[in-house]
Amino acid sequence: MRSRRKVTQSDQSPSEKVAVAVIGASGYTGAELVALLQKHRQVEICHLLVSENSVHKGAKISDLYPKLRGQCDLELKEGSPANIQLAAKEAQVVFLATDHRVSMELAPILLEKGAIVIDLSGAYRLPDPADYPSHYGFSHVAPKWLDAAVYGLPEWHRGAIECAQLIAAPGCYPTSAILAIKPLAEAGLLEQSTPIVNSVSGVSGAGKKPSETTSYCEVSLKPYGTFSHRHQPEIDEYSGISTLFQPHLGPYKRGILTTVYAQLKPSVDYAAMESVYQAAYAKAPAVRLVPAVPCISQVENSPYCDIAFYQKDQQAIVFSAIDNLLKGAASQAMQCMNIRLGFNEMEGLS
Fold first, then answer.
1. Has 46 been annotated as catalytic?
2. pLDDT, tens digit, for every residue of 8-59?
3. Which residue in the list 172, 217, 305, 336 is annotated as catalytic?
4. How many CB atoms lie within 10 A of CB 10?
5. Staple 349 to which of 174, 224, 252, 303, CB 3.0 to 4.6 Å?
6. Per DSSP, what are the bridge partners of residue 259?
């Protein structure tokens, strides 16, 4: 395993930009990454790759996403072994916006070539390889890299991100849930009961590939994944408390609204909650503590997580809202890259 030298902005000359590549660029998350990266003043996209059997290989990304015309007109090249090796050689940072299994196999190839890898799949989020067969349906082929992977939630793992070679970007549901509940769990304000995490996501969370279940003619407000959603162990692992998670699919394109119901210790009042949240996120530019219940329209197409909290006796209700494709995926990955390279954390995002 290669050493993880901390590469920072000081390693670049003033006029030199950091070369980055996106593998899986044709999906919703990949396209959002490209849109953000092309606005970043200190990076340059050198490769956009798609799967070898993709119908989009050879097309320009701006043909697939016309909003990028004149901003990024790079060709979507096939992710052949030769092109993967070339991306690993020429890009200092490689984003993987690919399926879990694909990321699991590609990451070691890129890492062994010395690239910094930011993986947006779930392939490296859980530290125990024994969890992958039951939650992701495969046995992990690169367990040594699970030990090296850093969970990419900037608000809680900034120090580790600064020197990581492999960053596992959090899932969208876990981002909204962990940011909402972790301050209370970390401060020891919760009773030993199980908090309920109730989340609703727009259909873009299911990805670009069409299916009947995500067709607008079929989608209603519907729960799914009861007691079986793969994000449950991720939420529990990084929030520091066992939860009961229930996701829902909502009839809208993008965004997640999460409601957390929890029991507080008898001595905890609103002032104590406020103090804990203020301390947790005082230096977190992508988290906004808001005075009223947040909603999707306030965060869609933005890199922010809006959080509001309420208390009555021992009952606490915490709300969080994010854009699932941005703070739940692409913009959060950008935050990680900025922190890792010593850039302003919100460069290219605000």
1. no
2. 554 555 458 999 999 999 999 999 999 999 999 999 999 999 998 888 999 9
3. 172
4. 8
5. 303
6. 198, 319
